[in-house]
Design goal:
The structure holds 2 protein chains of 2 kinds. Chain A is of the alpha+beta class. Chain A folds into 2 domains: 37 residues; 53 residues, Ribosomal protein L30/S12 (60s Ribosomal Protein L30, Chain: A), CATH 3.30.1330.30. In chain A, 34% of the residues lie in helices and 33% in strands. Chain B folds into 3 domains: 43 residues; 160 residues, no CATH class; 166 residues, Rossmann fold, CATH 3.40.50.1470. Chain B is α/β, with parallel strands linked by helices. The chains are: A alpha+beta, B alpha/beta. The interface between A and B is medium-sized, with 24 and 33 residues.
């Protein structure tokens, strides 16, 4: 009985040693896996449209075929040309912010 | 003592019985550990195991690279079909692996820039001719974009071939150090390949990328107006005024994917003006260090251009010939960001650099003076 107990202790010690070794080997992977779980991000292409004469500016969703410098209409304020002044990607985190 | 003596006689017998049972296993384990330690320390087995581990890691990443290449090929074929190219797959195959450039002899540096410039121009005209032949009378912006898409797929193909080459070389000669180095570099290589693969969407859809920072600043300076004239092949010149200073702005012809010849254009302009230029300001995207934030703006001296030689030296030569101060304004970003559609953060950097250029003009150039601003970079999505 005592022999069995001693044998169990030895096996237990070996199992613990093996588990610790495995944990040490997997630790970098576990850390990287935990840190890479980032929140989903939604990307949207936005274009800034502005008047060439006054300070009128508005932003809207990018339309296919638009480029910076393209005339896209007339200014609602003074009737001058409206051009695309910028196109960029806006990133927004999806879902509710954490508390 | 007697009681203790009895105990001391009985106990050792019992302990010896216990230890002799487990000690046999322990002895086996110790011998096993010793043998394993001997094998691990005095043979090549660990290196062989590592070679297998690293090579399987590289192979996994190589599959990812191949997927990117296949995806890029598919997108480029779809784009070429959409602009009216017949047999786009054949055009793609005819371009990949061809149109390479052999660098000029460097051991004799005399006129190396002239030789390099000549080779670059010859290669570019060959590519242009190849695309023009299949595109017919299409718009130049479309032609530039098709050329860029073909170049991107070509880069992805080359990257795949190089990775496979070093992997097979390492396995062939059991060079575990080579395979290990490759494995360590793979995440970075995959990221660069991903940036190239994603850039196809921007080039085909005509969306400005991070590298378009310079042309965007140029366009802001001229209040988004049209060009005055084409000063060099695929490079436009604009004229404007900022607080009583005459400003000449140079940028590549857009909105197709094009970088133009900013060095040659600057050289021509300064010569045309007889060297009567008070300041040259170059604006470009610059690779950031990992510790730096994307969209940061910095100001310095020199020609801000990521050119392999001829264009940059043209800028430096003309500036030094007429002793014109030359400034550099850069927007910091990573390599991935430089090739991806421009983010809001980098766009804010563009606005900051525009303000900085105006500040430099106001503070360092006298009223009535002349300034040349060069917006260096790919003008995709920016007319």
């Amino acid at each position: 009985m005592m022999l069995l107990q001693q044998f169990d202790t030895l096996i237990m010690a070996l199992i613990i040693a093996f588990a610790l070794l495995l944990l040490t080997a997997l630790l970098p992977w576990l850390i990287s896996a935990a840190s890479s779980r980032s929140r989903a991000v939604r990307e949207e292409l936005v274009e800034v449209v502005g008047c060439l004469r006054c300070d009128y500016e508005s932003s809207k969703k990018h339309e296919k075929g638009d480029y910076v410098g393209k005339v896209v209409g007339t200014c609602p304020k003074d009737g001058a040309f409206l051009v695309v002044k910028a196109i960029y990607v806006e990133r927004r985190a999806q879902g509710r912010a954490g508390y | 003592m007697t009681v203790g003596g009895v105990k001391s006689v009985a106990a050792p017998i019992y302990v010896v019985q216990v230890v002799s049972g487990s000690s046999e296993i322990a002895s086996y384990l110790i011998v096993l550990l010793f043998l394993v330690s001997l094998l691990m320390n005095f043979t090549d087995i660990p290196q062989r195991i590592q070679l297998q581990r690293f090579s399987s890691f590289v192979r996994r990443k190589l599959y990812a690279l191949e997927e990117m290449e296949v995806d890029a090929r598919r997108k480029s074929v779809a784009y070429m079909s959409s602009v009216g190219i017949r047999e786009p797959s054949k055009i793609l195959e005819g371009f990949i692996d061809n149109f390479f450039l052999i660098r000029p002899v460097e051991i004799e540096p005399t006129d190396i820039i002239r030789r390099f410039k000549h080779l670059i121009r010859v290669r570019e005209s060959s590519v242009r001719e190849y695309v023009r032949r299949v595109l017919g009378g299409a718009d130049r912006s479309v032609q530039y974009s098709v050329e860029t898409v073909l170049e991107v797929v070509s880069v992805l193909r080359l990257l795949n071939k190089l990775v496979r080459h070093y992997l097979e070389l390492g396995l062939k000669y059991n060079n575990w150090i080579l395979v290990m180095q490759l494995a360590i570099q793979m995440p970075e290589l995959v990221e660069i390949a991903r940036a190239y693969a994603n850039s196809i969407d921007a080039f085909t859809a005509g969306i400005p990328i991070g590298d378009s920072a310079g042309p965007l600043v140029a366009k802001m300076l001229v209040n988004w107006r049209e060009t005055s004239r084409e000063i060099s092949d695929g490079t436009n010149l604009y004229e404007t005024e900022v607080d009583g200073r005459r400003i000449y702005v140079i940028k590549a012809l857009g909105p197709g994917s094009n970088v133009g010849w900013p060095g040659e254009a600057l050289e021509k302009l300064v010569e045309e003006l007889g060297g009567a230029v008070d300041r040259i300001i170059t604006v470009d995207a610059a690779l950031k260090l990992e510790s730096e934030e994307s969209g940061e703006v910095a100001y310095g001296t020199g020609a801000a251009i990521g050119d392999i030689g001829p264009e940059k030296i043209a800028m430096e030569r003309v500036a030094s010939k007429y002793s014109i101060p030359i400034d550099a304004v850069v927007v910091k970003m990573s390599e991935v960001e430089a090739l991806s559609p421009i983010s809001k953060k980098i766009y804010e950097g563009v606005v900051k650099s525009y303000e900085l250029v105006k500040k430099v003009i106001r503070e360092k150039v006298r009223e009535g003076g002349t300034v040349v601003v060069v917006g260096v970079g790919n003008t995709v999505g920016v007319r």
